[in-house]
Design goal:
The structure holds three protein chains of three kinds.
Chain A: H1 13-22, E1 58-62, H2 78-84, E2 92-94, E3 105-107, E4 115-117, E5 122-126, H3 141-151, H4 163-167, E6 189-193, E7 196-200, H5 208-212, E8 240-246, E9 250-255, E10 273-277, H6 282-291, E11 296-297, H7 305-313, H8 315-318, E12 321-322, E13 325-334, H9 344-353, H10 356-362, H11 365-368, E14 370-372, H12 399-408, E15 416-422, H13 426-440, E16 445-451, H14 456-460, H15 464-469, E17 474-480, H16 486-494, H17 513-524, H18 528-532, H19 535-545, E18 548-555, E19 558-559, E20 564-565, E21 569-570, E22 575-576, E23 582-583
Parallel strand pairs in A: 1-10, 1-11, 15-16, 15-17
Antiparallel strand pairs in A: 2-3, 4-5, 5-7, 6-7, 8-9, 9-10, 12-19, 13-17, 13-18, 14-18, 20-23, 21-22
Helix pairs in contact in A: 1-7, 9-12, 10-13, 16-19, 17-19
Chain B: E1 8-19, E2 22-34, E3 39-43, H1 50-58, E4 67-74, E5 77-78, H2 84-90, E6 95-98, H3 102-105, H4 112-121, H5 128-141, H6 147-150, H7 160-172, E7 178-182, H8 190-207, E8 210-215, H9 218-224, E9 227-232, E10 235-241, H10 242-247, H11 252-259, E11 312-314, E12 321-323, H12 328-345
Helix pairs in contact in B: 4-5, 4-7, 5-7, 7-8, 11-12
Chain C: H1 2-33, H2 38-42, H3 52-61, H4 68-81, E1 83-86, E2 91-94, E3 101-102, E4 107-108, H5 109-144, H6 149-163, H7 166-180, H8 197-230, H9 234-241, H10 246-274, H11 278-283, H12 289-298, H13 302-330, H14 332-336
Antiparallel strand pairs in C: 1-2, 3-4
Helix pairs in contact in C: 1-13, 5-6, 5-8, 5-10, 6-8, 7-8, 8-10, 9-10, 10-13, 12-13
The chains are: A alpha+beta, B alpha/beta, C mainly alpha.
């Protein structure tokens, strides 16, 4: 899935201790904050911390890895979508506002939200007048069309999201504008005039506005397109443009003089420049954030284990952090293709016997790990409703209930099965061990089966014949949505039609025809409120079948340096809103 | 120079090395004199302290692990009490040394010329060019053919004899007034030995320097020395002119040495009278006379040999000293009646 | 001498080819042997949402369906004749020597390597100067004052230096000197020498010291052992007998001889470092070959891994060759004997 966690070399516990001892002076001047805002834990979680309209300064950002791609047509990381709004304008965007409102869409390049017609199969957008590329050329609907079409060339942009080629009514055998030159694509996207763009879909999709907010709708001028090399110099439409770009090392954004604030109600554009370093040692990033030598850890996945010890042990440092919930569920697939889990009572026994606290501890506890989950949907998804079909007093499981269901299942003394996990992930191993222990309380014996993560879904846990023949009754799994919406979150993990017999799908256990139908109905609904109301029933229906054992909803601990103003966590990206930051 | 003082005068020289096992008395109260133009041979088995003595005179010892006392007067200057820098300036200049085994004694990474030039330049403030000319000249004088070409060769490119000549050239480059040669011919074959000894003899005459030849080989001494000092266990046990030592030696150890001396004028190379036993450890010298455990005549001392250390006393010849408990007459008798005939019979 | 050099160069080229074939096999053949298909190899180059069709397209584009020898042949051909890569809108020609093309970053590998050599070179040279100065002088002093307090302190220190890993000393160094005291540059602040020599030195100072610390320790021990041996040699006594000042005796005669074995080790160490000071570059986020290798491995970017491996192998082989030749220069007995 998308917002891949980028846990690099993790420091040892001993090192963490040593750092916390050696560097406890890091927060000496925590009280001398001149900007007046008093730092406290979670101060930027649902409101703006240190609000400011002061312009100027340079924001320094660092990425522990390489940027996946700066090309709006191919980038597929949440942090990149968050940051891309500084130099690119998609048709719609998530509102740069704190709180739940930040997870709602607002027009950006378009004048208004999409207008559906034909029952949600046709979507029309009007583009604002006066928006220009950094070279002064006006942006037209054709630039948006070109941008979307080129992104469907998966041989050139294999890493990008594949929604458009899935939904658009493209001509048979269309391979993108490079290879299918001159092919008429008006049946998929038409541009009646320079300000209007119309998307024609194969099937109705009520949530198309979310696709219109993808970076793939950021206009690309055909004349400046260099294909896979375009990422070396993306032509800006936002308030910033590339001054330098050294792939794999660093790049710098400076003000784009052609950006007209009058065309843009969303962006404050406070800093004069963004200075981004790539491939920086992850532990060093944490230290620099804490010392004020760096402003933003751009991947927003949270501190490394070494710094975690330091931060948790020092109230002054902890006051400089936020702990947002992420739209990522760590869960366990309960495969009904493996006997005796084909019996619903045996699956329910697993649900009752599992110790969720152990699950949480395996992932690092409530601060760095996350909150215990009882549903598939995480709380920030619109339409989420809290419920718990398999309750236990303190989250550690209900042994009596589990035994009851085992008896009902005809396995009163328990049974044996296997649990798979990704060998490279110590947290998954710890989780598997925790489940092994808690299920053993009712006689369910688990055998641990680690597999390499590179082929985990294609060959092992996501390969149905393999699952069946190797009796992988349980498989550790995880999922995060491309955007915080029921469709984005559920479609890849509860729709039975994404399961491929050749392997490669995250969904391995959910094959409920009724759920497939419920999804189709919800997806076609163009009214957002009505659509959102349909996600939780799907969630509940899947939970009734007990084929998914939710573990925890992930959380991250992110550092909020004193050097920044206007800081808040975006509910859309679940890290700081990079578009709104200013220099304190 | 004070009246009556010789060019080189060593008085009660002691060089001791404290070790974990005890005090090593490598030189223990040595005294001797040497004038310019004359040659002193210091003779003894390995481990008798003769090399340490020579290094002591050169001032090459580590103050941190050795104790030195006594006096060394060289041309009126006292060396033992002088500062290290003063001695260093004398070293290689007024007093020089030739070492045994020139292959290991010369630096393998520098040319022969470089090593001679270095020796010259350290004491003469001249250009490299001048020093080089001097070095080539010197190599020629010690009998190295084509010195202007061989000057740029490395030591390993020289034959053994040539290396020893080069070593001598290096020692003589600063016209030293005192030259110490430590086993100068040991590593060489017999014909070359003779050449080298001739060379040293000639050069000494030419430079009029004082020469100390340190060796275990009385043949070398016979060839070169005017005076001879026999060392045993860090002490002088017999001293006298070469003729005295070879004609009328009075110490049983010297007799032993003479007996084990290979004779170039005889076809047989057998060592007919080897000295029994081995040299004493310089840490635990035997009680009484250091030589007593190996001495055939020890029973004739009446027990003195193993209890009382003998003093260095006047012997029969003029300027002849010996360290032995046996009465003078008895020594002379044994030499004349028992030892000498046996040696001549060889 | 000339034939010797030619023979050695030829052997070096052959060795590099063997290394390249072995590396290629490890990354391309071994996965096949343990059951990977062209498609599973291609999944490394596509997003997680990719359809089987996309995976197939990419596997085809990258030539994963071809026999392994053909893929290797293509790679070797690229080194000598260059290769062309389809970028969609354009075709990019990767001129010889084309050491592969990264489909993850869409860049040819060779310019990346060339771009990163100066960083690694700066780090290696600076550190080498420091560690030679400190290692040799500490080792020499230790040997001359054997058993003294200084000797024991230096050897204890050097034991610590050898045992402490760079990621530990580096992180502590950054924390204390960069972030607490502010004396040295924070991580990731490398600037090209040509851009600003002072910023270059400022950014590299701490990495130099940290890297040199580890090597100094090792070199101090080596020098000490070597000096103890050579200072007991006869030619040292000769040098003293010539009346040379003790400093000349120690340096010109003692150290000169003790240096020869150290030179060998230095050549190999330096060659290895040029291949990438992996830990140091990682800790200080220096964009050199070592960091490049780590990033390439993290991202599963095989052409880059292959390229940087070849580069490292090249440096080690060349360093070996240079050491052998230098040995002849340093030790006349080898040269002529």
């Amino acid at each position: 899935m998308i917002r891949k966690s980028r846990a690099l070399v993790a420091g040892t516990a001993a090192l963490a201790l040593l750092f916390s001892a050696a560097a406890c002076g890091g927060s000496d001047d925590a009280d001398s904050n001149s900007s007046g805002a008093k730092p406290e834990f979670n101060a930027a979680l649902s409101k703006v911390f240190n609000p400011s309209d002061k312009k100027g300064g340079t924001i320094r950002l660092a990425n522990a890895g390489d940027w996946d791609s700066l090309d709006p047509g191919e980038t597929y990381y949440g942090y990149s979508w968050n940051f891309l709004r500084t130099y690119g304008r998609s048709l719609l965007m998530f509102k740069p506002t704190p709180g739940a409102e930040g997870n709602t869409l607002t027009p950006d390049l378009a004048e208004g939200m999409g207008t559906p017609s034909d029952g949600g199969k046709t979507w029309t957008y009007k583009i604002r007048q006066g928006v220009k590329f950094e070279d002064g050329t006006p942006v037209t609907s054709k630039d948006v069309k070109y941008a979307v079409l080129r992104s469907t060339d998966k041989q050139t942009f294999p890493n990008g999201p594949a929604y458009f080629e899935g939904f658009l009514d493209l001509p048979e055998g269309y391979k993108g504008p490079y290879k299918s030159k001159g092919v008429n694509t008006d049946q998929a996207i038409s541009t009646p005039d320079d300000q209007t763009i119309v998307f024609h879909l194969k099937t109705a999709f009520g949530g198309f506005d979310y696709l219109a907010a993808l970076p793939q709708t950021v206009p690309v001028p055909e004349a400046k397109d260099t294909g896979a090399k375009y990422k070396e110099h993306v032509i800006a439409t936002g308030p910033y443009k590339f001054e330098t770009n050294n792939l794999g090392k660093n790049f710098k954004l400076v003000r784009n003089e052609q950006w007209d604030p009058a065309t843009d109600p969303n962006r404050k554009a406070l800093p004069d420049a963004y200075d981004v370093q790539l491939n920086v040692n992850a532990d060093d990033i944490d230290n620099r954030l804490l010392s004020g030598d760096l402003d933003v850890d751009i991947t927003g996945t949270g501190v490394q284990p070494a710094a975690l010890g330091r931060v948790v042990g020092d109230p002054n440092l902890k006051a400089q952090t936020d702990n947002p919930l992420l739209p990522r569920l760590w869960y366990t697939s309960v495969n009904p293709t493996v006997a005796p889990l084909d019996n619903i009572d045996c699956r329910k026994a697993v649900q009752y016997a599992a110790d969720k606290v152990g699950y949480q501890t395996a992932y690092g506890g409530p601060l760095a790990g996350g909150d215990i989950a009882t549903t598939i949907l995480p709380p920030m998804i619109p339409g989420y409703q809290k419920f718990d079909l398999y309750p236990s007093a303190d989250g550690t499981g209900d042994v009596a209930k589990a035994k009851e269901h085992l008896t009902a299942c005809g396995q009163p003394n328990g049974f044996e099965t296997n649990i798979s996990y990704r060998a490279e992930r110590p947290k998954e191993k710890a989780t598997a061990e925790a489940l092994q222990q808690s299920l053993a309380r009712v006689g369910i014996k688990l055998t641990l089966k680690p597999f390499p993560q590179g082929d985990y879904f294609s060959q092992y846990a996501g390969n149905p014949p393999f699952v069946k023949s190797n009796k992988l009754g349980l498989a550790l799994n995880g999922w995060g949505a491309d955007w915080n919406d029921g469709f984005g979150f559920l479609s890849q993990i509860v729709d039975s039609r994404v399961i491929r017999e050749t392997g490669g799908s995250s969904n391995t256990s959910v094959r409920i025809p009724e759920v497939d139908k419920m999804l189709d109905t919800a997806i076609a609904e163009t009214d957002q409120a009505k659509r959102d109301a349909q996600w939780s029933p799907i969630d509940k229906r899947v939970m009734e079948e007990a084929v998914i054992l939710p573990g925890i909803v992930a959380k991250s601990l992110i550092i909020r340096p004193k050097t920044l103003s206007n800081v808040f966590v975006s509910e859309a990206y679940n890290m700081y809103d990079y578009l709104s930051l200013g220099v304190a | 120079m004070p009246d009556g003082q010789a060019f080189l005068e060593v008085k009660d020289l002691k060089i001791h090395f404290p070790t974990d096992d005890g005090l090593v008395r490598s030189a223990d109260g040595l005294s001797f004199k040497l004038e310019r133009g004359r040659t002193l041979g210091i003779v003894g088995e390995s481990g008798s302290g003769k090399s340490v003595t020579s290094l002591g005179i050169m001032g090459i010892y580590n103050k941190r692990n050795s104790q030195i006392s006594g006096e060394i007067w060289l041309d009126g200057d006292e060396i033992v009490s002088a500062g290290q820098e003063t001695v260093r300036k004398l070293r290689g200049n007024k007093l020089a040394m030739i070492f045994q085994d020139p292959l290991s004694a010369m630096h393998p990474y520098y040319t022969v010329g470089h090593q001679i030039i270095e020796a010259y330049q350290v004491h003469h403030n001249v250009s490299k060019k001048v020093a080089r000319k001097h070095a080539i000249d010197m190599l020629g004088r010690v009998g190295i053919p084509q010195p202007d070409r061989r000057v740029d060769d490395y030591p390993h490119q020289f034959s053994g004899g040539m290396r020893q000549r080069a070593m001598i050239a290096m020692a003589l480059v600063n016209d030293p007034q005192l030259l110490i040669a430590d086993e100068p011919t040991t590593a060489l074959d017999v014909t070359v030995q003779a050449q080298i000894m001739d060379l040293m003899h000639d050069l000494q005459a030419e430079f009029n320097s004082a020469l100390i030849v340190i060796t275990h080989d009385l043949g070398v001494v016979a060839e070169l020395a005017d005076d001879v000092l026999v060392m045993y266990g860090g002490k002088c046990i017999e001293y006298g002119s070469a003729s005295t030592i070879f004609e009328r030696p009075e110490h049983p150890y010297t007799w032993g040495l003479l007996g084990s001396m290979p004779r170039m004028d005889r076809p047989t190379q057998d060592r007919l009278v080897p000295i029994p036993g081995s040299p004493p450890s310089l840490i635990n010298l035997p009680q009484g006379c250091a030589f007593s455990p190996r001495c055939a005549y020890e029973p004739q001392t009446g027990g003195l040999g193993t209890t009382v250390p003998p003093e260095l006393v006047r012997a029969g010849g003029s300027n002849h000293l010996v360290r032995c408990h046996l009465p003078t007459e008895e020594r002379q008798r044994i030499w004349a009646e028992e030892v000498k005939p046996k040696l001549e019979a060889q | 001498m000339i034939t010797y050099i030619i023979r050695r160069l030829f052997a070096a080229v052959v060795l590099l080819f063997i290394i390249s074939a072995a590396t290629f096999s490890i990354f391309y053949l071994v996965p096949r042997l343990v059951g990977s298909t062209p498609e599973t190899l291609a999944t490394r180059y596509v997003g997680r949402a990719a359809t089987p069709e996309t995976v197939h397209l990419i596997a085809e584009k990258l030539g994963f369906y071809d026999p392994i020898w053909l893929q290797y042949g293509r790679w070797v051909k690229g080194i000598f004749f260059g290769a062309d890569y389809d970028l969609g809108a354009t075709v990019e020609h990767c001129p010889a020597p084309c050491f592969g093309y990264s489909f993850i970053t869409k860049t040819p590998v060779w310019p990346d390597l060339v771009d990163r050599i100066p960083v690694t070179l700066s780090l290696a040279i600076g550190a080498a100067i420091l560690w030679l100065i400190f290692g040799l002088s500490i080792g020499t002093l230790s040997a001359l004052r054997r058993g003294s307090f200084l000797d024991r302190a230096a050897m204890t220190f050097s034991l610590a230096g050898v045992s402490l890993p760079i990621f530990f000393t580096g992180m502590i160094g950054l924390l204390v000197f960069s972030y607490k005291l502010g004396w040295t540059a924070p991580g990731g602040s490398y600037t090209d020498f040509t851009e600003s020599p002072s910023a270059w030195a400022y950014a590299l100072l701490l990495p130099w010291i940290v890297l040199a610390l580890q090597f100094s320790a090792q070199y101090a021990r080596l020098t000490r052992a070597g000096m103890l041996e050579t200072m007991g040699e006869d030619y040292i006594r000769t040098a003293r007998a010539k009346g040379l000042p003790e400093r000349d005796v120690t340096v010109k005669h003692g150290l000169r001889a003790a240096l020869t074995p150290i030179l060998t080790i230095f050549g190999l160490d330096f060659g290895l470092l040029l291949g990438g000071a992996v830990l140091t570059e990682q800790v200080f986020s220096l964009p050199g070959l070592g960091k490049y290798a780590v990033d390439a491995i993290t991202n599963n970017d095989l052409p880059k891994v292959l390229g940087v491996t070849m580069m490292a192998a090249f440096f080690v082989v060349i360093a070996n060759l240079i050491v052998d030749l230098l040995y002849a220069v340093v030790d006349p007995r080898v040269r002529l004997g």
